[in-house]
Amino acid sequence: MPGILPIKKLLIANRGEIALRILRATKEMGIRSVAVHSTADGNAMHVRLADESVCIGPPSAAESYLNAAAILSAAEITGAEAIHPGYGFLAENADFAQMVIEHGFIFVGPTPEHIRMMGDKVTAKAAVAQAGIPTVPGSEGAITDDETAFATAERIGYPVLIKAAAGGGGRGMSVVHARSELAAALRSTRNEARAGFGDERVYLEKYLDHPRHIELQVMADRYGHVVHMGERDCSLQRRHQKIVEESPSPVITETERRAIGKTVVQALEKLGYLGAGTIEFLYQDGQFYFIEMNTRIQVEHPVTEMVTGIDLVREQISVAMGHPLSVTQDQIRIEGHAIECRINAEDPKTMIPQPGKIIAYHPPGGPGVRVDSAIYSGYTVPPYYDSLIAKLIVHDKDRDRCIARLERSLAEFVIDGIPSSIPLLRAILAEPDFRESRYDTGWLERFLAAPPGS
Prior knowledge:
Elements: E1 9-12, H1 16-29, E2 32-38, H2 45-49, E3 52-57, H3 68-78, E4 82-84, H4 94-102, E5 106-107, H5 112-119, H6 121-130, H7 146-156, E6 160-168, E7 171-176, H8 179-197, E8 202-206, E9 212-220, E10 226-238, E11 241-247, H9 254-271, E12 275-284, E13 287-294, H10 301-308, H11 312-321, E14 337-344, E15 356-357, E16 360-362, E17 369-373, E18 380-381, E19 388-396, H12 399-412, E20 414-416, H13 422-430, H14 432-435, H15 443-449
Parallel strand pairs: 1-2, 1-4, 2-3, 4-5
Antiparallel strand pairs: 6-7, 6-8, 9-10, 9-12, 10-11, 11-14, 12-13, 14-19, 15-18, 16-20, 17-19
Helix pairs in contact: 4-5, 7-8, 12-13
């Protein structure tokens, strides 16, 4: 097929469970793998299983997994043709993607232009609105003065949300309930944005008080074909960090799914998007409102894989080589129900990270149970990186059976030596609000703040 650039060796520019996930896809595709690692990750599972490995720096992420020059040098010396960034670290760094391409490697991801466009919340919102995706009412662009902020807030109505243009991960946001609070909140959010992201621009949006967080998984090839693979409901969050994700959403109808899917696909066709991506929405009172697009594979991608049977990482690598999508929209079916729980090395009450040595490790099994993890008995969880150590994903015919399978699997999961978030996850599953899907993005914060026995 014209335009195909075969990949014989791929460098995985990441660590942990996602590095192992990518490695497994390369093995099944007959592609040799190169693992890069810091000195703290010399005994990591993806390093032990890769065909080749290269140490790229000391434990600090800034000197290793965020060191673009070291990663490119590792690709050069090992003869890799492609680089997969995974998620986090450099995955949504447009300059890194551009460097990868300029040095003659295949970047397994969207174009640098689309990464840059969607990485800035102001330009992303403008781009998708022009392409037909519904957005939250708010400012036309960055707010540069208090007078514009006051006028915008009056127009859309309080409460309003101030958001950093370059923000992410729940950082750089302030809720303002009254005019008297607005000026001070603008100053503090700008200061936080400048300190955290090196960009003080902020914008205003209408604050939604009981939304669900709904996201659509998309995939596109270089021939203009775009498909969506249904939605994931990621409404159980703490400090804007997702804890539990499921597909399909218990609150979305089939009619709504088809309508928003068609809208998203048509918009990304107009934008000429390439590769995997996720369009994230707030959903309230039957309306979808765009909040951001992630131009990478998501932590929660296994949920979609379980209900569609499509290997998203393999699809990413395939379209990066120039192959067309392996499926058309009418071939994609959502079968059954899947739920993912993120398991972190942290205190289940305070959620403070608790790195250390794992004394015993026994993952659950059985039909419809999947564990994505790179830990093992005797492994020491380092203190330098994200506390995510495992993802438990289960699938069954419907949501009730899926929850039952998830409860059984969590009860079976053994991680000894360090605290984990498993007790919190079991407590969430036991709540009637979760079982009956009566929750929004603020539910978990309220649940954690409630006095014991209340």
